[in-house]
């Protein structure tokens, strides 16, 4: 009987210890996630849409500081972590630095949004609604990042997201971030001509020819792209493909389509790759 009571007491003590330990672990994890480390600061700034480019090691001259712990160079911003706030003393009055406790940010380019970086550091977490100075909105920055990094699944998804941008952003987004950029787009072959071909990539295709789309089915135009091909002028493309067959084309974007205006997209220097 005594042995049984003793075992019950031991089990209760172990259970109580486990219950007390769990919140402590959660608290420690939360503290670690909010600590001023280079990794945390990078994550906070990156998730706040304030960073461009991949993480790279800092220069040896920066790493040689006696109180240096860790850091990254990301595009035009360096993130430097020191052991204590003493390590940042020499940077507090530096014209291109932002210092907060043991963290220093060095701005090698755009500094117009220094207050946004400061707000994230003070909050110790990512903040919503922020964007880099050379974008006009967080919405535009998100689109450009996905387009640039090939995150969109082909032509249809790309233009669907483009058409959702504010009207005031579309022309600027196309001109600065899409024009002359090389893309690989797939769709259904509509028709071939001596120096261009037409591709539709907006859902169901019922065999319409190019003239029919231009005149009677203009709602298809925003999901159609015309490809100026690289073949010799006057020579027809010998694709051995039928209307409606799947086709993949690589080229440089040279024309912006419009959903409201019912106009098509365009590629130049097109090359059929499949």
TrEMBL record:
The alphabetical list of record keywords is:
Signal
* UniProt signal peptide: 1-21
Protein name, entry field? Lipoprotein
Tell me the organism: Halobacillus aidingensis
* Taxonomic lineage: Bacteria, Bacillati, Bacillota, Bacilli, Bacillales
């Amino acid at each position: 009987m005594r042995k049984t009571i003793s075992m019950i007491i031991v089990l209760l003590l172990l259970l109580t210890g486990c219950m007390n330990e769990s919140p402590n672990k959660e608290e420690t994890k939360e503290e670690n996630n909010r600590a001023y480390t280079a990794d945390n600061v990078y994550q906070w700034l990156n998730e706040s849409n304030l960073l461009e480019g991949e993480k790279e090691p800092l220069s040896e001259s920066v790493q040689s500081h006696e109180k240096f712990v860790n850091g990254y160079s990301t595009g035009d911003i360096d993130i430097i972590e020191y052991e204590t706030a003493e390590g940042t003393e020499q940077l507090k009055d530096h014209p291109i630095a932002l210092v907060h406790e043991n963290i220093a940010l060095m701005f090698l380019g755009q500094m117009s949004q220094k207050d946004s970086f400061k707000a994230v550091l003070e909050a110790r977490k990512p903040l919503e609604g922020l964007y880099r100075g050379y974008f006009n909105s967080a919405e535009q920055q998100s689109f450009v990042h996905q387009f640039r990094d090939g995150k969109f699944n082909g032509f249809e998804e790309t233009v669907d997201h483009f058409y959702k941008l504010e009207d005031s952003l579309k022309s600027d987004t196309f001109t600065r971030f899409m024009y002359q950029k090389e893309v690989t787009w797939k769709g259904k072959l509509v028709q071939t001509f001596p120096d261009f071909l037409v591709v539709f990539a907006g859902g169901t295709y019922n065999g319409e020819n190019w003239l029919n789309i231009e005149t009677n089915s203009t709602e298809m135009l925003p999901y159609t792209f015309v490809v100026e091909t690289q073949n010799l002028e006057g020579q027809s493309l010998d694709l051995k493909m039928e209307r409606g067959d799947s086709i993949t084309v690589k080229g440089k974007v040279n024309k912006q389509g419009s959903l409201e205006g019912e106009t098509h997209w365009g590629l130049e220097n097109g090359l059929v790759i499949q």
